[in-house]
Amino acid sequence: MKIRQIMVVALGVVAAALAQAQPAWPSKPVALVVPFAAGGPTDVVARTFAASMTKTLGQSVVVENRLGAGGTVAAGAVAKAAPDGYTFFIHHNGMATSTALYRKLAYDPLADFEYVSQAVDVPMTLLARKDMPAANLQELLAYLKANESKVNLATAGLGAVSQLCGMLFQRAVGLKFTEVPFQGTAPAMNALLGGQVDLLCDQTTQTIPQIKAGNVKLYGVTTKSRIKSLPNAPTLTEQGLKDFEVVVWHGIYAPKGTPKPVIEKMNAAVRAALKDPDVVKRMDDLGAEIVPDAKLTPEGLQAWLKAEIDKWGPIIKAGGKFAD
Ligand code: MLT
Fold first, then answer.
1. How many domains does the chain have?
2. Ligand 1: residue whose CA is nearest its atom 3
């Protein structure tokens, strides 16, 4: 054997030995970054999945809340994190809508990530403070029209679905309210419960307990049809807001370059969570729907994200709302 061939064989042996010496992934806790406040809807979904994935992976999946700029601070941090299999990210529609809402982003959602899977779809609800003097949507619209300059709408900032839903609502009814941004809808909900803000459009994963307890007033759901967990709540569409539909989807991502075997194991852990009776029950109670199998692949998530960027870009730009 020539010297060069011997060296190639030797290097192969060393590489194989090194690979065997690597501890199996995961050998330490795995971070799941949430871009909004603890206790809010994205956090609820993340913690429900993290508990189940911890059982499957045999290592803790630890939720880390990184707040700011409607989810874009966390997305930028994850894009720059080491692709070593110990940082993952859960985000919703904001991963797509932020590309149209921000003139500059510190990351490219279609180039700087690996895609793991989608998880659940969540409806939204249009809520007002408990003492809002309106018994139904028509009365609410009359009140909002008469008090337009005084009405406050809570959101979780540009890139948040509460902001997207609020923006579409204002556009649909031809009114303009003062938007009050929070770092998640957990603090926004506290402000609504305290009566410091008037309106909040938020996900059922946070709102159902407050609706059922009678702590807030519900004026409609944002889905095409009524939802099982709030059967008496009319849709906004059936009350006259034509084509008003916002459904919140969730994707799980990792920094670009995260090894494929790790992505595959994480994908299997997400699929296992979707069959875990504790996850299924909690998601069902909170109005969330487990997505079909076709959306549970890395390719499925990537294609969905691209389609969502293409869908929301023109809609958002027509509203002319931007952040630098
Ligand atoms: C949250 O978890 O606070 C929400 O998902 C924020 C939002 O997008 O409205």
1. 2
2. 184
Which tokens sit at 279?
Answer: 């996850």
Ligand 1 atom at minimal distance to the Cα of residue 94:
8
- Are residues 82 and 143 located together in one domain of the fold? no
Max Cα distance, the chain (Å): 90
Same domain, 108 and 139: no
Q: In this predicted model, what pLDDT tens digit does every residue of 246-293 receive, in sequence order?
A: 999 999 999 999 999 999 999 999 999 999 999 999 999 999 999 988
The ligand 1 atom at the shortest distance from the C-alpha of residue 37 is 3
- What confidence tens digit (pLDDT) does each residue in 166-192 have? 999 999 999 999 999 999 999 999 999
Same domain, 42 and 177: no
Token pair in block for residue 68: 């700011």
Residue 195: domain span = 123-221
Strands (E), the chain: 30-34, 61-65, 87-91, 113-129, 152-155, 178-181, 199-203, 216-221, 247-255, 289-290
Instruction: List the structure tokens of 95.
Output: 């991963």
Both 256 and 188 in a single domain?
Answer: no
